[in-house]
């Protein structure tokens, strides 16, 4: 087991926050090359259709920057980045007990290409397999999310998460009724009866439909939201702005930082896929590499249950309404 | 027909921008009462379940403020606000040729209740039935959108819309492929075969599914996004961040300011519901009170078509994939 002192961890946290700010600024500057007065003259006629190459280059540049900074400062730490990792042959789960940086230089790539504001850099630091530090910076929104075990979770370093505190609201008695439900359509768009597209849509409709509808599965959520970034979905759940996030297909670099932030804020993250006995099975902590995530916002107690009980009740109500998603990984 | 000089219009525009900023700050301050250190002690234990009342009060207070300012400054102008209007018995369309303010003090009410950042104040000014000035301020995001006929459309008064310019990108050749598609699930959640819920979901799936799927209707959009605010959907379309927005059920105060901003940026707004000959029928300008909206982002020319031709092609490709929505109004 890796051992890090409080002082060491605080130093790593401060370093990660600054790194996130710098990397986020790089993302925004690269985006501005496409539209602002900072655009080099020779690139004046970059067409939107070519934006994908530009994004790939930005991804690689930002990851290289982060990796370089980390390697210089903490040469003994392991580094897993989306870009370097994706080029490897396998997609095995490589996170062990050693201190490990798990980084997505640009989450929300489609958003970035279209200058839809919800894109960010996502820097996670993992110790003994646990997401311990998370830094997420969305530079277009000027929203910086950060957390370190034992130090609280924060928006822009000044507003503690969740935003509504003293008391933190309990989960609604009729959850998922009264909840903001965040989800993503994703890339798997196969029009086959059992594709993830149709599994997801059936689940979304169950969550949204009136109570009594869908053979008793209607969840009548307060709102359905799709932002296009798993990282920001998790960060918004930590804010308390999203009550429930349900998604499959992400990789650990998409969620490591967000899970660190949400966990430190008091949220719960478990598996998107219902276990066999969904009503009674234990609500287990998510496996970081599972690719299947169900997140519940931080919750305070109600007169009849603890915050954790309210979260677990909500998990079971979601599990009752969603289908198993079909995402796997090598060796899983 | 009402006649306003350029100077008068510019004066009204400057007034509207300041009004939007002040009203947005009121929204954020009221929200902060629920979580920040500005919360009065006696309200310390406001529960989330009571937030609806608080929001209604905020809605009314902000609309009263805006109406008071407008009435003092422009006593001859007509004023239509969501709050005052909704209390009336009918929902007739009341906009004529006279200079008319059309205001939603708080768009994205569900977002506001949950402190999900996408809420805003929306101030439209209409002359001869046309949305002429629009001011939208989302204070949590610190995003101010503004436009006046002939003066361009702007983000935070400094970045002209759409964001990608010189040249403004043409619509993708395979639109809706390559497009960001914004839509909303809305409040009509009836689980009946022909409800708006099921009409919408069928349309969403057509837009998202792989090309070749859905009996040839698969649109393979680049991303599906749901923000929970019609006003911000329109503003993001004006940015160029959203390529296509399709929605029914809004009222004129939800869209007047956004349509002014999108139109001035070069976007197109027509009806959500396909006409009978969707492939050849003229693409008509939207009727402000129609409750059915299909918006396309500003588009530049390609080697083979004008920007407008690309937008109209996209409109027809959307019409081919969506179902008629069932929203009406008294007298329509």
From TrEMBL, chains A, B:
Q: In which pathway does it act?
A: Polyol metabolism; myo-inositol biosynthesis; myo-inositol from D-glucose 6-phosphate: step 2/2
Q: What class of enzyme is it?
A: hydrolase
A GO BP entry? signal transduction
* Statement: the UniProt record of this protein carries the keyword Magnesium: yes
Q: Which organism is it from?
A: Lophium mytilinum
Task: Show the SUPFAM superfamilies listed in the entry.
Answer: Carbohydrate phosphatase
Q: What are its E.C. numbers?
A: 3.1.3.25
Record key words, sorted: Hydrolase, Magnesium, Metal-binding, Quinate metabolism
What family is it from?
A: Belongs to the inositol monophosphatase superfamily.
Name it.
Inositol-1-monophosphatase
Residues bound to Mg(2+): 82, 104, 106-107, 254
- Spell out the InterPro entries in the cross-references: IMPase (IPR033942), Inositol_monoP_metal-BS (IPR020583), Inositol_monophosphatase-like (IPR000760), Inositol_monophosphatase_CS (IPR020550)
Q: Which GO terms describe its molecular function?
A: inositol monophosphate 1-phosphatase activity; metal ion binding
